[in-house]
Specification:
Strand content: 25-35%
Order of helices and strands: EHHEEEHEEEEE
Number of domains: 1
Radius of gyration: 15 Å
CATH topology: Aminopeptidase
Distance between the termini: 34 Å
Helix content: 10-25%
């Protein structure tokens, strides 16, 4: 398996991977592939953090991290949003999503980012180091169970003094 940065030639295959990955997902609205297309055109997009997993020349997985801010009354903090991570159904359960997550963490850290925020499954993401966001005083701007709102520090003390409301790029709301 090869993990690499997505390129323009991958967009059609990535769209299909995301669409198939979320087709039967319990909490998905089946528009994740359109969100990725919007985010690629946004100021929040970081090309190095749109990554694919490829097996025998076929794209089987994708992950996207985009810029967001955490804002309180006095300060704004830069962070990243993990949304989405996708693996073709026939390739799920063998660690591809996990490898994409870990590789995206490594790349984000290399680029100087200190944390990642996500909304996701409470039994999946903690195995990669994610913790409840409310532990840090970080809130998401919509009503969801607190156990599904998570963050990770990419560097030691990466969330020291960070608290407030997450502000997603406007493309998340379109």
């Amino acid at each position: 398996m090869i993990l690499r940065q997505e390129n323009k030639n991958d967009h059609k295959d990535v769209f299909s991977v995301i669409e198939k990955a979320f087709k039967d997902a319990e909490f998905a609205d089946n528009t994740e592939q359109f969100l990725v297309e919007r985010l690629r055109k946004s100021v929040a997009f970081i090309p190095e953090l749109s990554m694919v997993a490829e097996i025998d020349g076929k794209i089987v997985g994708h992950i996207l991290l985009t810029k967001l801010i955490i804002k309180n009354k006095s300060t704004e903090f830069d962070s990243l949003a993990l949304a989405p991570v996708s693996v073709l159904p026939e390739f799920q359960g063998i660690g591809i999503g996990g490898k994409l997550i870990l590789e995206s963490h490594k790349k984000a850290k290399e680029l100087g980012y200190k944390s990642i925020v996500l909304l996701g499954h409470e039994n999946y993401y903690p195995r990669f180091g994610y913790e409840r966001a409310d532990k840090y005083g970080i809130e998401l701007p919509f009503e969801v169970p607190k156990e599904n709102c998570m963050v990770i520090e990419l560097v030691e003390n990466g969330l020291n003094g960070v608290n407030g409301m997450v502000e997603y790029p406007k493309e998340f709301n379109e």
